Amino acid sequence: MAKPKPPEIITFTEEQLVALLLQLQVALPAPTYQLVESLLKTLLWIMQVLAEKKISLRRLHKIIFGSTSEKAKQLFPPIAPPPDASAPPKEKLKRKGHGRRKADEYTGAQRVHVPHLLLKVGDICRQCLKGKLYPLAHPALLVRIVAHPLIGATIYELDQLRCALCGALFTAPPPPEAGVGKYDPNVGTMLALQRYGVGVPMYRLAKWQAFMGVPLPAGTQWKLIDEAAPIPERIYETLITVGAQGHLIHNDDTHMRVQSLSRDIAAQEPGERTGIFTTSLVCQVALHQVALFFTGRQHAGENLEQLLQQRASALSPPLQMCDALARNRPQQSQTDMCNCLLHGRRNFVDEIENFPPECRHLIQSLGAVYHVDAQCQQAKLSPAERLVAHQTQSGPIMDELQQWMKTQLDQKLVEPNSGLGQAFHYMLKHWGPLTRFLHVEGAPLDNNICERALKMAILHRKNSLSYKTTRGARVGDVYMSVIHTCQLNGVNPFVYLTALQTHAQAVLKDPTRWLPWNYQENLAATDTS
Fold first, then answer.
1. What is the mean pLDDT of residues 326-352?
2. How far apart are CA 471 and CA 295, in angstroms?
3. Cα(402)–Cα(392) distance, rounded to whole angstroms?
4. Angle formed by the axes of helices 356-378 and 395-410, to 10°?
5. Nearest to 345, CA basis, from 318, 372, 324
6. Using CA atoms, how far apart are residues 308 and 246, in angstroms rounded to an integer?
7. Backbone angles phi, psi at 25, to 5 degrees
8. Helix, strand or coil, per DSSP, at residue 244
9. How buried is residue 245: exposed, middle or buried, by Cβ count under 10 Å (0-12/13-18/19+)?
């Protein structure tokens, strides 16, 4: 079989791509256009990075297809000793998270008490015919799981009577459980949780509801979500004020697609900013964590700048954790900068095949530092005690690592322009922010908590492709912020959002009393009154 000929290679500039996309936007449906736009932009980016020769094929492959793991035991698998025939076979351990779940884990299940119909306390035992029966402290548990549509419906058939003489019509009044209106207020909450918390696009949910015989078109879903948004939006605005007072703020961003903004960008003058981003901020405020999302044309540092404008002037500058990109830094407000240690480590992960001994040394050294941090968390040390532990145990490791990298470069044991040399330069250039945990109480090692938060936005982008308007992006930011703040503070987001809708007037009156970590106290007081 003859080898196929390579296709004709066509090169194009970013300006030519913008012109082509303007033509396609008119001719193609919105979902198809978004897919073609992503493919063409991906192709242009690959051609640019290959032409600039600033990326290795291994790194390019990892960016496009992803990486299974960057853990040290996966990067450097231990060499297994030869099997000992005389040793007894080891019992295979069950992996964590596999097996039967406990009944207590079904927190949303309805519990039904079932009395014993044939026996009661004090009866004579039917087996030995001597002892008397007494109740056990814990009943036997039987879990029964059934399938229902996500959004159910009930049709109330109200009897109607008409007067045979005057024609007056009398309809039976609906029962109290019928509620007011066609849609229960919790329907919008459930739909928002499905789309922004779980990442289910509205068109997929519409198909599911059609399968279950309770149709709910995508347009209706959006209408219900938007109508339910004002109450969570008030909480979102309050969370922004609360988060601005935090002593530690993580920030990062990822690209996003908003159709209305894309049209504005296509019509603007060349040279202006063309990116659309979703920023994630995770703020540590006393014992609570606040997650905030912002979608638009601003970078993470600009959104952080706006947040810090609401910070009390009497407070000292907060700790800021991010990677070393300049766009993550606020331009005017002052912060105590910390950089992500794992971003520096990742440069060495990319060079393992080319420089295995050097990369192994650095990765294992950083692993020892993380082991110290894990021990501090396990022992529940205070920030001051954690700082002392890192200074005494991690400090010598980091000092040796810094001196080793300087020696490698000074004695020209590594080419400065190689991948390993550039990884050394990155670590040494940002050594102060990277080792802030050795000097400041509570300074984190990495930005993982913020990157995990961004997965909510990435899941939405992957499944729903884009927001249609800036209003849609605003609603997504509101719900993602409230939902993830609930998750960070161990609160059930559906129960919380339902409580907000039920007590809407009280929430609007004083939203500071209805935050995820204090709403239950006020909920009990409101119900009592």
1. 92
2. 10
3. 16
4. 160
5. 324
6. 10
7. -65, -30
8. coil
9. middle
Which residue matches tokens 């992960």?
349
Q: Are 127 and 133 in contact (CB under 8 A)?
A: no
In this model, does residue 95 exceed pLDDT 80? no
Query: pLDDT (tens digit, 9 = 90+) per residue, 445-466?
Result: 999 999 999 999 999 998 888 8
Of 154 and 60, which is predicted with more confidence?
154
Torsion of CA 419, 424, 426, 431, to 10 degrees: 170
Which residues are 319's β-sheet partners?
248, 336
Q: Where does the pLDDT of residue 503 fall: very low under 50, low under 70, confident under 90, or very high at 90 and above?
A: very high
The residue among 315, 282, 317, 287 whose CA lies nearest residue 457 is 282
187: closest CA among 160, 162, 221? 221
Residues facing residue 284 across a β-bridge: 248, 289
H or E stretch covering 232: helix 230-243
Q: Give the residue ranges of DSSP H helices in 411-466.
A: 419-429, 431-434, 448-464
Sign of the C-alpha dihedral computed for residues 225, 228, 234 and 239 taken in this order: negative
Tokens 């419906």 map to which residue?
A: 153
Q: Are 349 and 359 in contact (CB under 8 A)?
A: yes
Q: Of 522, 511, 513, 524, nearest to 232 (Cα)? A: 511
Instruction: Quote the mean pLDDT of the chain.
Output: 88
Of 164, 211, 451, residue with least CA distance to 328: 451
With a cut of 60, say whether residue 3 has pLDDT above it: no
Residue linked to tokens 């979902």: 31
Q: How many residues would you count in the chain?
A: 529
The two structure tokens encoding residue 137:
């402290």
The reported pTM is 0.82
- Which structure tokens are listed for 45? 């980016």
DSSP state of 513: G
Number of helical (H) and strand (E) elements in the chain, helices listed first:
21, 7
Q: Could you tell me if 19 and 26 are in contact, meaning their C-beta atoms sit under 8 angstroms apart?
A: no
In sequence order, which residues have a C-beta less than 8 Å from that of residue 12 and are 6 or more positions away? 20, 44
